[in-house]
Q: What sequence folds into this?
């Protein structure tokens, strides 16, 4: 590698646009896939904590510890699995296999709701689940190209949250009649829908050079730094990774804590209240993600991403003001702002900062690994804070972490939107021809 920093040739934006003609069939399949994956991508999510707490009398610390094993595996596997997504051309098969594994591990838990069984299911499910986000992002980038990726990523995220909202609404209205079983029924139905959607993506519609972050003209096939080398060589990526870790440290446990608090205060209604919290957040995540996709190119990435930190810090503080279910569920609307913006912008910012490196998906894994460190450590620490100091102390701690992350992002993160729509950010090393 020459070691010099290079941008795209003049007229790069037009060049990008010309390499990827719209493929309506492929994009409709991406729409269906984004919607259907909503209940599979993260397994049982917050429902698992409520299920173990209310159905099997687990305490909060044990829940956090058992789930941390899967989190740790997801942490260390993100970069290797990102490298796999970059390298493999059978991305549809990879995604379909991941859907089946995550669903199977979720269905095993009611059969063996014991500590090590739950931990083992979490580990296997984490290996499969970790591939879903990067694979969907890679397929999207390979289908639409860099010029339309911000819009596509926002659309994916909006449809993901719309699907999640619809599914949780179904659980909300059916759980009083069918109980916890509805959580598992919906998992099976959405897994089937995801597999149908994967099969509808035309195999030839994915440009595998673009899908891994190479430039449309083929540059970037020479020597490339490792994924971690790509991260360490870019100061903006380092700042993005560190501040994102603080965001996930603050955000990760919040929904589970609210759901647990509601479940303990209202015995027998834990699943219903968890669904209500999820639906409240999803109603805002859909427009937030759509806004990010529609305005990321005109407004820039930084102000939208910073707004997510503000919403998260405010959310943690507001939870402490009242224990009434209406208040707690209402505050959960702010989760929609943070999660909607972050989810839509994460792959866009990574794509901005790694364009031409050929390590788009591996870099997503490397940055995601740092982000996951925050979520995992927070899950363990917060469980013990709740046990020893209560829910109020936990919420205030998380709010303070979010404020710290937002300040770091404001001061240290540059705008990553390509200048003029077509240049690679100045600190990104692009391989020689």
A:
């Amino acid at each position: 590698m020459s070691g010099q920093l290079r941008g795209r040739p003049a007229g790069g934006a037009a060049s990008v646009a010309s390499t990827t003609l719209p493929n309506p069939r492929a994009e409709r399949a991406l729409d269906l896939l984004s919607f259907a994956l909503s209940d599979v991508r993260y397994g049982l999510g917050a429902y698992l904590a409520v299920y173990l707490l209310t159905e099997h009398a687990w305490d909060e610390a044990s829940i956090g510890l058992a789930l941390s094993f899967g989190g740790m595996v997801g942490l260390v596997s993100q970069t290797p699995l990102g490298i796999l997504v970059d390298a493999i051309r059978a991305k549809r098969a990879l995604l379909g296999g991941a859907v089946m594994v995550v669903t199977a591990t979720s269905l095993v838990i009611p059969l063996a709701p014991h500590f090590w069984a739950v931990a083992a299911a979490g580990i296997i499910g984490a290996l499969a689940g970790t591939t879903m986000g990067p694979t969907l992002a890679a397929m999207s980038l390979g289908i639409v190209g860099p010029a339309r990726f911000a819009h596509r990523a926002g659309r994916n995220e909006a449809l993901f949250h719309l699907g999640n909202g619809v599914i949780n609404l179904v659980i909300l209205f059916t759980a009083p009649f069918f109980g916890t079983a509805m959580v598992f029924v919906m998992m099976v139905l959405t897994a089937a829908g995801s597999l149908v959607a994967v099969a509808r993506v035309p195999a030839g519609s994915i440009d595998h050079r673009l899908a891994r972050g190479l430039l449309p003209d083929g540059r970037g096939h020479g020597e490339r730094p490792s994924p971690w080398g790509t991260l360490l060589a870019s100061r903006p990526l380092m700042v993005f990774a560190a501040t994102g870790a603080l965001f996930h440290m603050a955000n990760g446990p919040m929904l589970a804590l609210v759901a647990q608090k509601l479940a303990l205060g209202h015995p027998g209604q834990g699943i219903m209240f968890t669904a209500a919290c999820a639906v409240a957040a999803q109603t805002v995540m859909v427009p937030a993600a759509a806004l990010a996709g529609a305005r990321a190119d005109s407004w820039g990435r930084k102000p939208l991403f910073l707004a997510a930190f503000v919403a998260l810090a405010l959310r943690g503080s507001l939870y402490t003001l009242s224990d009434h279910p209406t208040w707690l569920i209402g505050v959960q609307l702010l989760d929609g702002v943070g999660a909607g913006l972050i989810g839509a912008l994460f792959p866009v910012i990574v794509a901005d900062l790694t364009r031409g490196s050929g390590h788009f998906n591996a870099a997503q894994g490397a940055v995601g690994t740092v982000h996951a460190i925050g979520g995992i450590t927070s899950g363990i620490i917060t469980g013990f804070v709740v046990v020893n100091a209560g829910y109020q102390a936990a919420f205030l701690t998380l709010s303070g972490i979010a404020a710290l992350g937002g300040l770091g992002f404001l001061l240290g993160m540059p705008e990553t939107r390509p200048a003029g729509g077509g240049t690679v950010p100045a600190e990104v090393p692009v391989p020689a021809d």
The domain at 24-204+225-419 is CATH 1.20.1250.20 (Growth Hormone; Chain: A;).
